């Protein structure tokens, strides 16, 4: 209680004092560019993915914009040790994403290399996915994907160099006939999703859908 008085929670954008469980104030929340995708219908993200790999459905919560609040939110989650932001983003996602049909069987998250995981202290996607898993009653398999190579953070590269990056992922077990919901923070070039999708789709009975916190397109 004393810490709350001395160091009150403040809006990420305007610095106004807000509830300890919130991320932004009501006014700033209204400025977030949410994407109103229907998971089971065509949308821009799904069409981008179709150029790379076979996909069932796709959903993005926000539009990622360089000078906008969505960028601040993602950076708080990834680089400011604010893992709790993942839970808040998950609750926003739950409000907006409905599985009318074709509900996935399992949630999988893009893995960090062990070196990066040790440095950051947490995978920024795990609390997000765990919150979704509990609400949707879909298991979250944290260990299914493995990152085999250590790469610089995507935020430190321009887009031309991101396109050149070769990712190296593998799966840790054989799962057959499953519909995977692959989760990442930001979809930019699609390189990461593409590499992982084809690993999962080595089993022709598997299917892939995509969920990202933000779409940079």
Task: List the keywords.
217 residues; alpha/beta; Rossmann fold; globular
Secondary structure elements and their pairing?
Elements: H1 2-6, H2 26-29, H3 44-50, E1 58-63, H4 69-79, H5 84-96, E2 106-109, H6 114-120, H7 126-136, E3 145-147, H8 159-164, E4 169-171, E5 179-187, H9 191-200, E6 207-215
Parallel strand pairs: 1-6, 2-5, 5-6
Antiparallel strand pairs: 3-4
Polypeptide structure, described:
The protein is α/β, with parallel strands linked by helices and 217 residues long. It has one domain (33-150, 162-215): Rossmann fold, CATH 3.40.50. The strands form two sheets. It has a four-stranded parallel beta sheet with strand order 1-6-5-2, sandwiched between helices. Strands 3-4 form a two-stranded antiparallel ribbon. β5, α9 and β6 (207-215) form a beta-alpha-beta unit. Helix content is 34%, strand content 16%. The longest helix has 13 residues, at 84-96. It has helices spanning 2-6, 26-29, 44-50, 69-79, 84-96, 114-120, 126-136, 159-164, 191-200, and strands at residues 58-63, 106-109, 145-147, 169-171, 179-187, 207-215. It contains nine helices and six strands.
How is this structure best summarized?
34% of the residues lie in helices and 16% in strands.
Element string (H = helix, E = strand): HHHEHHEHHEHEEHE
Specify the number of helices. Answer: 9
Q: Quick one: overall form?
A: globular
Helix-strand category: alpha/beta
CATH architecture: 3-Layer(aba) Sandwich
Mean pLDDT: 90
Strand content range: 15-25%
The parts where pLDDT drops under 50 for at least 5 residues are none
Radius of gyration: 17 Å
